[in-house]
Design goal:
By secondary structure, the protein is mostly helical. It has one domain. The chain contains 13 helices and no strands. It has helices spanning about 10-25, 25-50, 65-95, 105-110, 115-145, 155-165, 165-195, 200-205, 210-220, 225-245, 250-255, 265-300, 305-310. The longest helix has about 40 residues, at about 265-300. The chain is globular. The mean pLDDT is about 80.
């Protein structure tokens, strides 16, 4: 029996996550790189669309198109991130239960239930982040109504507008006073709902549940451990931020050197390559931690360790997790 099949404290889960990441680095990073590469392609296509819209001097009526494109880009990236989590969850589950795991087998495991995973990510993303998205649309509508049409690509335009039409800037400021606390509430709501749904993908992967069943399963399993899962996400976010600063330092230096000027798309592309690298390296850590939390909660709530021991002794049916196929 796997000697890790026991309830673990937060520190133990973090240590186990680091151990699995280190000992299976090439497998986890290889899986993550596949989906991070798809995300990079989506982001490069979005930057290409900005060129077609005339970046950096886009017309006012194209601003809505830019904002809509950003929303679509975010949704696609969210779904790709979900697929990456699903593939890594599958690999971690194999490793956790002492089964072999390969990049090819984990990536292929996503395909049979691709629609289910995409639908699951759509539902959870919609439920958690719709209020934030609505406020984003309201903010953009207000900004477009009172600020110059090129405010998104030319920050100096907003400064000039403050001198020419202070009344409009005052109206924008008042709108921000109202929207800012609403944004904060929407962010808190989104984080809380994301914590409730954080184990939906592992449950869907391991137990072959439909999207609705996986969501209900996650709400039940995360109860009592959402604070611990939040700490994991916070640590991963901090590491991602550090890597983002490291990979994006040339871009930061350029922005400081030329304040108020739109950044060249070539440099923005370099930034996205940095995002690809950080996503490839950091993505497996969060996915691994979530899978460990999933099994830890099953052990705490359902006695999964006893169930697995009985299965290993041949006293009950085999577990639901199939072995990887290398063909």
């Amino acid at each position: 029996m796997n000697n890790q099949l026991r309830p673990m404290a937060l520190g133990e889960i973090l240590d186990r996550t680091a151990e699995l990441y280190r000992t299976h680095f090439l497998v986890f990073v290889g899986i993550s790189a596949i989906f991070a590469g798809m995300m990079l392609a989506v982001q490069v296509l979005y930057l290409r669309s900005l060129i077609l819209l005339g970046y950096p001097n886009m017309m006012a009526h194209w601003q809505w198109g830019t904002a809509s494109g950003a929303v679509v880009e975010a949704l696609v990236i969210l779904m790709l991130a979900g697929l990456s989590i699903a593939a890594i969850n599958r690999a971690v589950a194999w490793v956790y239960l002492d089964k072999p795991a390969t990049i090819r087998a984990a990536a292929k495991s996503v395909l049979p239930r691709l629609r289910t995973y995409l639908w699951l990510m759509t539902i959870t993303g919609f439920r958690a982040w719709t209020p934030f998205a609505v406020l984003y649309v309201v903010f953009f509508a207000v900004a477009l109504a009172v600020l110059p049409h090129d405010f998104m690509t030319n920050p100096m335009a907003a400064q000039n507008a403050a001198q020419q039409n202070p009344g409009a800037i005052l109206a924008f400021g008042l709108s921000m006073l109202i929207l800012t606390p609403l944004f904060a509430l929407a962010l808190l709501y989104g984080v809380w709902m994301s914590l409730r749904y954080s184990l939906a993908v592992p449950a869907c992967v391991v137990e072959d549940l439909p999207a609705s069943g996986a969501i209900k399963r996650s709400v039940n399993l995360t109860e009592g451990s959402r604070g611990r899962i939040f700490v994991l996400g916070l640590l991963v976010y901090a590491v991602r931020m550090l890597l983002g600063i490291l990979f994006g330092f040339p871009l930061i230096a350029l922005a400081v050197k030329h304040p108020g000027q739109p950044l060249p798309l070539g440099w923005l592309t370099v930034q996205q390559i940095g995002v690809f690298l950080s996503s490839t390296l950091i993505g497996p850590i969060y996915s691994t931690g979530l899978t460990l939390f999933y099994y830890d909660q099953r052990i705490r709530k359902e006695g999964f360790d006893i169930e697995w021991m009985m299965q290993a002794a041949g006293l009950s049916p085999q577990p639901e997790l199939p072995a990887p196929q290398n063909s």
